[in-house]
Write a structure and sequence with these properties.
The chain is an alpha/beta fold and about 450 residues long. Helix content is about 35%, strand content about 25%. It has a six-stranded parallel β-sheet, sandwiched between helices. The longest helix has 23 residues. The protein binds S-adenosyl-L-homocysteine (SAH), iron/sulfur cluster and FE3-S4 cluster.
């Protein structure tokens, strides 16, 4: 059979990154190649639709591909998958330049899809069942020292603003033993760190009829794997977060001391409208327990700005919460109505864009000041980092990450990627720390 050349363009979260890695792994095993765009026979666009802007990136790229087909006569087949594909389905197929569209739960059939498209067929394939996902073919990963490991699919939370439960379906946990086996193999293959992925990792196992299948137990099992040096996980959901997780993390020395616990808003009124199932006080109480059990832990969060009905007072509640918790980093996003969600259908998007932008900039400034002040404490200290990648356009510098999720930039060549390094910090900023290897 002919070897085909595939190019992947991946947008969105780590879930999509991991899905693309899985598809690449399947294609590699079938004898195909992963190449650059210029050489490709088949181009896969793995899309995101969490905000309108995320979706628009895919449209812009597809426009470019269409031009390559029409004006440059490139004979490529274009497949669209991922969350925007789930949302738009046949509307994607109507778009110029698109040959096939498939869903987040039929990625295992990637080769079959491509061959059909090369045969001249235009089609869609969406599946609700999960048995199609192939986790036994090794993924072709972007990194040789860090691996994404999906532990559950979908989400049952239905936050009123969020499209994910519609694009990724109901929550389903992967088999405990399969996950542990994959992590064991990764450690054997020389991977130093992994990130366990789920939209809500804390509810891992709730759909399985076995009380031992819990997130805390999974963390313990993974932490006991020989050679597993650093473990991260994403994303925690405040009211599902179990204190057992804190205990497990405190008892082993190979957990990154970092927890991503999105709050979304500091106002009880807005949290309720968002259908987040906790109050501000409950959230703070949990944060205090985490800080007590894991001293010095780094906390990160997501906050939505300008949710329907957000007054200046509600916004200031978010600002104060950011100050009170002292996050390492907060991802800020301007509210974007997503068709079909409760917020988009029932709540007018009534905060003017100008105000949303003003609030966003204000909170960015607050964060910057906090980070700069906090980072001062790193001056002249020595930290342990795993080198992650070369800095774009600065080949003599690489960046790495401490176990408290601090980005550190230092002079080294690419052979140091994936290695533990001791770095002495000689300069700090509101963002990364700068230092030299000691
Ligand atoms: N399951 C994770 C991630 C969900 S998507 C969680 O619960 O946190 C990642 C982030 O995108 C969310 O945390 C939220 O802050 C943001 N987001 C989701 N829908 C959005 C929308 N409609 N508008 C703006 N930001 C949104
Ligand atoms: Fe979306 Fe909420 Fe589920 Fe996160 S928990 S994926 S924000 S519905
Ligand atoms: Fe985007 Fe889907 Fe992830 S909407 S954020 S790619 S789950």
């Amino acid at each position: 059979m002919k070897t085909l050349k595939f190019y992947f363009e991946t947008y969105g979260c780590q879930m999509n990154v991991n899905d693309s890695e899985i598809m690449k792994g399947i294609l590699r095993q079938k004898g195909h190649e992963i190449t650059e765009l210029d050489d490709a026979d088949v181009v896969l666009v793995n899309t995101c639709t969490v905000r309108q802007k995320s979706e628009d990136k895919a449209y812009a790229f597809i426009g470019r591909l269409n031009k390559m087909k029409k004006e440059e006569g490139r004979k490529i087949k274009v497949g669209v998958c991922g969350c925007a594909a789930e949302k738009e389905k046949k509307d994607f197929l109507r778009r110029q330049g698109v040959d096939f569209v498939f869903g987040t739960r039929s990625i295992t059939k990637i080769e079959e899809h491509a061959l059909k498209a090369l045969n001249g067929e235009r089609f869609m394939d969406f599946s609700d069942t999960l048995d199609e996902i192939d986790y036994h073919t090794p993924a072709l990963r972007n990194s040789s020292h860090h691996a994404w490991v999906t532990i559950s699919y979908g989400c049952n939370k239905f936050c009123s603003y969020c499209i994910v439960p519609y694009t990724r379906g109901r929550e389903l946990s992967r088999s405990f033993d399969d996950i542990v086996a994959e992590c064991q193999q990764l450690a054997k293959d020389g991977y130093k760190e992994i990130t366990l992925l789920g939209q809500n990792v804390d509810s891992y196992g709730l759909d399985v009829d076995d009380e031992k299948v819990t997130f805390a137990n999974l963390l313990r099992a993974v932490s006991q794997i020989e050679g597993m040096q650093r473990i991260w996980f994403l994303t925690s959901y405040p009211s599902d977060f179990s204190e057992k997780v804190i205990d497990v993390m405190a008892q082993a020395d190979n957990f990154a001391q970092s927890i991503h616990l999105p709050v979304q808003s500091g106002s009880d009124k807005i949290l309720k409208a968002m259908n987040r199932r906790y109050t501000r006080d409950e959230y703070i109480e949990l944060i205090n327990k985490i800080k007590k059990g894991l001293p010095g832990v780094s906390l990160t969060s997501d906050i939505i700005i300008g949710f329907p009905g957000e007054t200046e007072e509600d916004f200031l509640d978010s600002v104060n919460l950011v100050k009170e918790v002292g996050y390492e980093k907060v991802n800020l996003a301007i509210y974007s109505p997503r068709e079909g969600t409760v917020a988009a259908e029932k709540m007018p998007d009534d905060v003017p864009l100008e105000i949303k932008k003003k609030r966003l900039n204000y909170l960015l400034e607050v964060q910057k000041e906090m980070n700069r002040a906090f980072n001062e404490s790193y001056q002249d200290k020595v930290v342990d980092v795993i080198g992650e990648a070369v800095l774009p356009r600065k080949p003599h510098l690489i960046y790495g990450r401490t176990s408290r999720n601090k980005i550190v930039i230092f002079e080294a060549d690419s052979s140091q990627i994936g290695q533990w390094k001791k770095v002495k910090i000689h300069r700090v900023s509101a963002g990364p720390l700068y230092g030299e290897v000691v």
